[in-house]
Amino acid sequence: MDLWRLKVFRAVVEQGSFSKAARSIHLSQPTVSSHIKDMETHYGCRLLDRFEKKVAPTRAGEVLYQYAGRLLAMHDEAEAALAASQGVVRGELAVGGSTIPAGYLLPEVIGRFIRQYPDVRVCLKTGDTAQIIGDILSGSLELGVVGARSPDKRLIQRKIMDDELRVIIASDHQWAGRRRINMDELVREPFIIRERGSGTLMAIEAKLAESGLSSRGLNIVAELSSTEAVIQGVRHHIGISIVSLLAVREAEAAGMLKSLAVSGLTLTRQFYSIRRKGRTESPAGAAFRGLVEAAAGGEPADGEKD
């Protein structure tokens, strides 16, 4: 089992294409194809299904993908630990963030981190909360920051900051002259919702449940897979939505959107740093986590300790 070939294989799965994977790891497409063919010969099974413009892992490929992530993570962890034993923090650090933390919190932290540790290469993956948690548990990510707390006992979770959610409307919406709306108005208006697995959606459902409601009571007209898509949908009058104030500050300042409170509904949630229990923390990972948690005055989540 060759670690470099495992890295090539993971790149193909993640990119969904031989050509895109080749560009991402600076190889030629024939070389990538040759590595995959050699792996399929070695394991005696097909790892990838080839379609006209896309490839996808077979069931065997999905199994190998998970193990490959764990093996590569252990390799990076070993290199980083050996470097740290010599007084050097270096290597590659794989971190992940759900949409809002990855777009509006982690880039600033990464900037500060690489100024302090220039020999570390930080790889940031963006996904919904469920995806990032899955990658932490599989071992392909060392640290994540997400917008919902998981009940999974295999995780160490720390609250790092509060996030305020608001209803957002187009600047020329009929409510544009108001500062708040009531619940009856919220449930009647066409509503854009995030996809299942989104931390924002989990937070909205939890807050509605506290008021005896559910997302099924909303007048949902569209389900979109990113915060930016939701913002653009609101701007183009598909409907209203609820998003983090972090994501709409610039658009609101530019007069493209307006945010409103909802009477009787407290729209706040928390961001959490997460990592896998039992996994030895790399020196780079510990340093990065310290910056993330210090940036927002982090504290242990309820019932969770290191």
Describe the structure.
The structure is a single chain. The protein has helices at 3-15, 18-24, 29-43, 59-85, 99-104, 106-116, 129-138, 183-188, 199-210, 227-235, 245-253, 283-295; strands at 48-50, 55-57, 91-97, 120-126, 143-146, 155-170, 180-181, 190-194, 219-224, 241-244, 257-262, 268-276, 299-300. With 306 residues, the protein is an alpha/beta fold. Strand 8, helix 9 (199-210) and strand 9 (219-224) form a beta-alpha-beta unit.
Secondary structure: number of strands: 13
Strand-and-helix sequence, N→C?
HHHEEHEHHEHEEEHEHEHEHEEHE
Helix content percent band = 40-55%
How large is the radius of gyration? 22 Å
Number of helices: 12
Unreliable stretches: 300-306
The overall average pLDDT, rounded, is 87
Largest sheet: 9 strands, mixed
Structural class: alpha/beta
Shape call = globular
Distance between the termini: 34 Å
Strand content: 15-25%
Any key phrases for this structure?
single chain, 306 residues, alpha/beta, nine-stranded mixed β-sheet, 24% strand, globular, disordered C terminus
Quick structural summary:
This protein is α/β, with parallel strands linked by helices and 306 residues long.
